[in-house]
Every structure is written in C-alpha cells, then in structure tokens.
Specification:
This protein has a single domain, classed as Rossmann fold, CATH 3.40.50. About 45% of the residues lie in helices and about 15% in strands. By secondary structure, the chain is of the alpha/beta class.
C-alpha cells in the first residue's frame, strides 16, 4: 500500500464508530499519526486498539465538539502529542429525531445543529488557527451528506444542518486558499452504520424504501467513504478545494428506480 499520509498528523472527530473509526484505521495504514475524538470512552478505546493494530501512533480524546473549550482542548492536545496538525476530518454528527418540521421541537433543532453545524464550525475555527500558526498549508474534510444537496420530507432539521456544512466548506475554502489550506466535504448517502440503523433500520418497510433510493441496490460501507477521505486529504487531490464528493450509490443521478 502506498502511504499517502506518511508522517502527517491527522485529527478525526466522531472517530469512535462507523465512518470515523474506519477512517482512523485507514489513516494509520497510510502512515498518519492519528488523534480521534468521541463522547463514548468504551468505543474510543476499541478504536484505539484497532488503530494501533494497524501500525498507527494514536491518541483518543473524549470530547464534545459542541463545546468550544473541548475543541480547543483537542487541537491543543494534538499539537502537544505530535507537534503540529496537518489533516482534519470533521466527521462528528447526529441525526436527531426525524419528523415533519411543524412537529419538531426547539430542543431537537438545537441538539442537531449544535453538533452538526456549530460543532463543525468550531472545529474549522481552531483547526485553521493552528494551521495558520504553523505557517499555512493543510487539508480539512467536512462530513456533509446527500442531505446537504436535496430536501426530504421528515428530515428537515438534519437536512438544514448538512446544507449549512456545505456553505461553511465553500466559504472556508475561499478564505484560506491563499494560505494553502484546502477545505472540502464528503456527501454520502445511506451507509451501514449505527446512525443509519437508528434512523431507518427499525422498520422493514422504511428500510426497503431507503434501499430503493440507491440504484446500486445496496447501502454503502464505511470504508468506501474512508477511502475517499484519504484521497481528499492527500496530495493526490492537491488542486481540489471548496467542493464536495458525492458517494451515493447513484441516488442523485436521476429518477429513482422502482423497488
């Protein structure tokens, strides 16, 4: 395997399970030193073991990205441990409670946006500050979704947060391109994760309907997103900034086929 992130220092938020976990392991396989965060200590320690087994020097930090002090802490600890910050994957996110907008609560809106949007902005803020302090240069990938590109009944709160992620991504890319900091986003459709199970897996009819939205006939696997993120964080994507990669099994390509 070509080590596309050899000697890079990478930070991943939401790295304890799913896409974040697979990305942490893959970053390590590609030669990066990996710091990852999450709110669940047991899962974090499990991921730490997997990253180290993949040959990576790694650090797990329990934290909540919706709190500025926590985000400052994780960037500070990354630099204390490894001396710098080269790459960041802002992956932490929640789905919240699904349902029509008129039935949503203010508490659910705040919960989803505090993590998916405010938290991601805080990560951008302190990651960029550190990269500028180092003299510029660096790569940031933000987790959006196909939900950041479309509307969908019953998903309005989540969709609003993911549209916001793409707006922040484009704005940050333009602001810091002169300093050599590239900022992009990834937009998956439904991926085989605990989040998808919570949102769609409990009802066989809903699961079947969601599967029918993917012309390839299956949901994505976390590692398929991780592979794209590695490429986006490497020099192989050096002329890409301010854009998103869509990984959706064909969902957005045209009219949805009948199940």
């Amino acid at each position: 395997m070509t080590k596309d992130l050899e000697n890079k220092v990478a930070l991943i938020t939401g790295g304890t399970t799913g896409i974040g976990r697979d990305t942490a392991v893959l970053f390590a396989k590609h030669g990066a030193k990996v710091v990852f965060t999450g709110r669940r200590e047991t899962e974090g320690n499990e991921t730490l073991g997997l990253v180290r087994a993949a040959g990576g020097d790694s650090l797990f930090l329990k934290s909540d990205v919706s709190k500025a002090s926590d985000v400052q802490f994780i960037v500070q600890k990354t630099v204390e441990k490894f001396g710098r910050l080269d790459v960041a994957f802002n992956n932490a996110g929640v789905e919240g409670t699904l349902g029509p907008l008129a039935e949503q609560t203010e508490e659910n809106w705040d919960y989803v946006h505090n993590i998916n949007l405010k938290g991601l902005w805080l990560c951008l803020k302190y990651e960029v500050q550190q990269m500028l302090k180092q003299g510029g240069g660096g790569v940031i990938v933000n987790m959006s979704s196909v939900a950041g590109l479309i509307g969908a009944a019953g998903l309005g709160v989540y969709i609003a947060s993911k549209h916001g992620v793409l707006g922040l991504t484009k704005s940050a890319a333009l602001e810091y391109a002169p300093q050599g900091i590239r900022v992009n986003a990834v937009c998956p459709a439904v991926i085989e994760t605990a989040m998808a199970d919570r949102a769609f897996g409990g009802d066989p009819a809903v699961n079947k309907a969601m599967l029918a939205l993917h012309p390839l006939g299956r949901f994505g696997k976390p590692v398929e997103i991780s592979e794209a993120v590695v490429w986006m964080c490497s020099d192989k994507s050096s002329f890409m900034t301010g854009h998103e990669i869509v990984l959706d099994g064909g969902m957005l390509a045209g009219p949805t086929p009948r199940p």
